Amino acid sequence: xxxxxxxxxxxxxxxETIHTLSYSVLRTGFKLPLxxxxxxxxxGVQDARLExxxxxxxxxxxxxxAAGFDKNALLVDEIAQLGFGFIEIxxxxxxxxxxxxxxxxxxxxxxxxxxxxxxxxxxGVEVAAARLKLRKSNIxxxxxxGKNKITPNEEALRDYQYCFDVxxxxxxxxxxxxxxxxxxxxxxxxxxxxxxxLLAALQQQNNAKPQRKPLLLKIAPDLNQAQxxxxxxxxxxxxxxxIVATNTTINRDALKTDKPTLDNIGAGGLSGKPLRNHATEIxxxxxxxxxxxxxxxxxxxxxxxxxAQEKLAAGADLVQLYTGFIYEGPSLVKRINKLILKS
Length: 343
Known about the structure:
Layout: H1 2-10, H2 15-29, H3 35-43, E1 52-54, E2 57-59, E3 63-65, H4 76-79, E4 86-92, E5 105-108, E6 113-116, H5 125-133, E7 140-145, H6 156-167, E8 173-177, H7 192-207, E9 215-219, H8 225-237, E10 242-245, H9 259-265, E11 269-272, H10 276-289, E12 295-299, H11 305-314, E13 318-321, H12 323-328, H13 331-342
Parallel strand pairs: 3-4, 3-13, 4-7, 7-8, 8-9, 9-10, 10-12, 12-13
Antiparallel strand pairs: 1-2, 5-6, 6-11
Helix pairs in contact: 6-7, 7-8, 10-11, 11-13
């Protein structure tokens, strides 16, 4: 029903407007009597065979919602009823920021893709933490952390450390985001020496806590092999728990959308089906070269249950959806979990 009826209607409206409206619909809808129970029945799959023990956490199933959908932790309890095994909030920054100018979110229907240049628009880490303290569901929540646009890279560590401290008590794991293409110069923090220093300092902060939290790094799909090798080396040196592979890409090769449309859209990160194969290749390379103790969350171009299975077969321990969730609807989560059970 979603693809045949709802999606054609929704896709007639500006994508960011629909994103905002979906928040209201979910929040209002799940306040109705029996809505949560019905939602769990419609979209959830309860089966012990789906459980995954990763990062010392027990995930009820391996399908998560990627960062970017619920930046401000507004819908954690509602999204928990849609069958996901975990949710990643953010990216959050120390101070609230509006993000880049609109329009900044675009659909490419013929490619089953999105382009976004949101720019870490969020209400600030303290607002997200306050909401998470009030959540009622026990779903696993990851905190995706970044730096403010106005913070120079030389002072970026301060922003990441602040976000880590504020979220420490209310999230189950952390993801360090240095790979978004939509904050100026952010990706320079993926360079070998800045990244080593950033992760080492965060791990030192982490290890000083009463109980350390799993710390992961989210990487860009636009890294070359030498850069991937540097990431692998740093991940081992800094005792990372995992890598999220991958973020959006700045590559526009082989898209079906015409060049004038792409030129009119301009800069931004591409997600969805065009990213599928390359993200899987990166996952496979990482799994071949990382020690087993460093786990992988696969994300990028998962539009079908078979795409998710491909990521898992390549070496991902868990997978995340974003664009596939937009194009396929919440039933995709259930379909993936059912295919896993058949495998």
